[in-house]
Amino acid sequence: MFLSYLAFITATLTVFVQCHDCKDYDLSASDQSLVDMMKHYLHTSRKEECPPGVKPSTSGVTYVRWGKKECPKGVDMVYTGQVGGNDYANKGGGVNNLCLPNDPENGKPLSGADNSQLFGTEYETTSKLKPSGMRDMYQMEVPCAVCHQRKKSVLLMIPGRKTCYKGWTSEYSGYLLSGHKTTSSKDYACVDENAEPLDNKSSNENGALFYAISTKCGSLRCPPYKDAVEVQCVVCTK
């Protein structure tokens, strides 16, 4: 219905334009009335596409701020929680890090399934094994926050840098952490340089583990990289 009506109005306007000298043409009262009617129809038809009470889709980008309970200033927080993942000793299963909300909607008991894969994540950042700019939080659990940056449309995590390239805005910077090379594989996470613990509890509960990682020259070209140094990272938007 809308397309046929729009085609009719377009054809009618075309006829009007062809009947006048375009350089000196002034809309008559009837012509202007038709244009106004078309604008009104387009305006009201767009309203009908979004039913009353339904908000238009939200723009922006979302990202996880690993190691923090809150989002940067001026950025909306979707939820806060703790980092979860597969146990470091499991030989298979998931490898990605998850930001688990603090208000879960728990499922029903899963009896007879010996496949536990969702554990909390601990910092394995002792005084000797932590990045230089990070505090010692050995065997403490890792928090996280899911953030919604409404003013940006593109998101990029850059490993090996602490600043964004020109034209990009830094959301936060930190260090790449992951599992240990002798245990099961784990995704890299850009953990905030001002990371904090989930709570004051500190005990060797294991689960998923976050270790600082370092570079190794060879296949990694040095320069520009250096051997055996911590790896910085930055989360950028534009």
Helix vs. strand class: alpha+beta
Distance between the termini: 40 Å
Q: What's the order of the H and E elements?
A: HHEEEEEEEEEE
| Rounded Rg | 28 Å
**Biggest sheet character:** 10 strands, mixed
Shape: globular
* Strand composition percent: 25-35%
Indicate the low-confidence ranges by residue numbers. 1-25, 46-50
Number of strands: 10
What percent of the residues sit in helical stretches (DSSP H or I)? Answer: 10-25%
The overall pLDDT average reads 83
The number of helical runs is 2
What's the short version?
This protein is of the alpha+beta class and 238 residues long.
What can you see in these coordinates?
The chain is globular. By secondary structure, the chain is of the alpha+beta class. Helices cover 16% and strands 26% of the residues. Helix 1 runs antiparallel to helix 2. Strands 1, 2, 3, 4, 5, 6, 7, 8, 9 and 10 form a ten-stranded mixed beta sheet that branches.
Please give a handful of descriptors for the protein shown:
ten-stranded mixed β-sheet; disordered N terminus; alpha+beta; 2 helices; globular; 238 residues; single chain
SSE inventory with pairings:
Elements (H helix, E strand, L loop, with lengths): L1 H17 L10 H21 L11 E6 L9 E10 L12 E4 L17 E5 L19 E7 L5 E5 L9 E10 L10 E4 L15 E5 L19 E6 L1
Helix pairs in contact: 1-2
